[in-house]
Design goal:
Elements (H helix, E strand, L loop, with lengths): L1 E2 L6 E2 L2 E4 L12 H13 L4 E3 L8 H10 L8 E6 L1 E5 L5 E2 L4 E4 L2 E5 L3 H15 L6 E5 L5 H17 L5 E6 L3 H9 L4 E5 L13 H8 L2 E5 L15 E2 L2 E2 L2 H16 L4 H11 L3 E7 L3 H11 L5 H9 L10
Parallel strand pairs: 3-4, 3-16, 4-5, 5-10, 10-11, 11-12, 12-13, 13-16
Antiparallel strand pairs: 1-2, 6-9, 7-8, 14-15
Length: 322
């Protein structure tokens, strides 16, 4: 277990990303969702991440239900603020936003202090919890001024009141997260897709700043939305079809991994976990079988010779991992 910054909140090295049990892209049954969370618990996962955005609250409801059988002191839950849910009578589905659920609500961008509190209260109700351990500002890319001026101070107040244990921001970019690390007193940032075998942009400023400031980093998107899990024609990279150049690079990495007796999935997870700033790696899974596979890959030792060959062949430009 690792502690997030100076917060005292502990997280397991492998974390469960609950977006998929919010019916990300395709439906997941209640039973499948429950089994996935249960399998994660059985494999030692004690950190679970969710958000109102994931399935218009479905992810939070399912996660809370699945965790109810366990002692609250034994696990860590994070959720997010910034997208407030309001009832909608529009009908139809939410697939335009990536989730196979009825469009019962609409998302309203809201990083005001009032919006932060209202969103968190609604999340607690859906989760069936009286507290969450970590709250992130969720994707404030186009709302930086409000997020820094109103949203962040609201989280800081919640932390000082003991309502939450740790605070931070979660984004698919490294630049603004670096600003959070340098200019605020966040405990943790969640960086998705920007520190992977194919994209090390977080290495330029974010990760060194986190080490310097004692801020923890949680890495999401280790597979860049699919390409590093299963590189093949039609595979996705950052939620769009992977460009040919990146597909070729991933296939070459896969061949190197196989020569060293490991999978590319194992290497992708190991790469994210190895940096000293990283406290936990988030992985989503929509079934117990996917959870067990991910846990198996995460536990697989990756030989140093694999990293050396990646660097020698120009497939990896960093000195991490050694």
């Amino acid at each position: 277990m690792s502690t997030l910054g100076g917060s005292g909140v502990e997280v397991s090295p492998l974390a469960f990303g609950a977006a998929v049990i919010g019916n990300l892209y395709t439906e997941v049954s209640e039973e499948q969702a429950h089994q996935a969370v249960t399998a994660a618990w059985e494999r030692g996962v004690r950190y679970f991440d969710t958000a109102p955005h994931y399935g218009l609250g479905l992810s939070e409801r399912r996660l809370g239900e699945a965790l109810r059988q366990h002692s609250r002191a034994e696990y860590t839950v994070s959720t997010k603020v910034g997208r407030r849910l309001e009832p909608s009578g529009a009908g139809g589905d939410d697939l335009a936003n990536g989730f196979a659920v009825p469009a019962t609500h609409r998302r309203v961008w809201d990083f005001t202090a009032d919006g932060v509190r209202r969103t968190l209260e609604a999340s607690l109700e859906r989760l069936g919890l009286d507290r969450v351990d970590v709250v992130y500002l969720h994707d404030p890319d186009d709302h930086a001024e409000q997020a820094f001026r109103e949203g962040y101070p609201a989280l800081e107040k919640l932390r000082s009141e003991g309502v939450v244990g740790a605070i931070g921001a979660g984004m698919n970019q490294a630049e603004m997260l670096t600003r959070f690390v340098r200019d605020t007193d966040v405990d943790v940032v969640l960086c998705a897709g920007r520190y992977t075998l194919l994209d090390q942009s977080a290495l330029a400023d974010l990760l060194p700043a986190a080490v310097e400031r004692g801020v923890s980093v949680v890495i999401g998107g280790a597979f860049n939305s699919g390409l590093l899990a299963d590189p093949r024609p039609g595979a996705t990279y950052n939620y769009a079809q992977a460009p040919g150049e990146l597909l070729d690079r991933a296939l070459r990495m896969k061949a190197v991994a196989e020569r060293h007796g490991i999978t590319l999935r194992a290497a992708a997870l190991a790469f994210c976990a190895a940096h000293p700033a990283v406290a936990s790696v988030l992985a989503g899974a929509r079934s117990a079988a996917e959870v067990h596979d991910c846990a198996d890959q995460f536990a697989t030792p990756v030989p140093a010779a694999f990293w050396h060959e990646l660097r020698d062949t120009g497939l990896l430009a960093t000195e991490e991992p050694s």
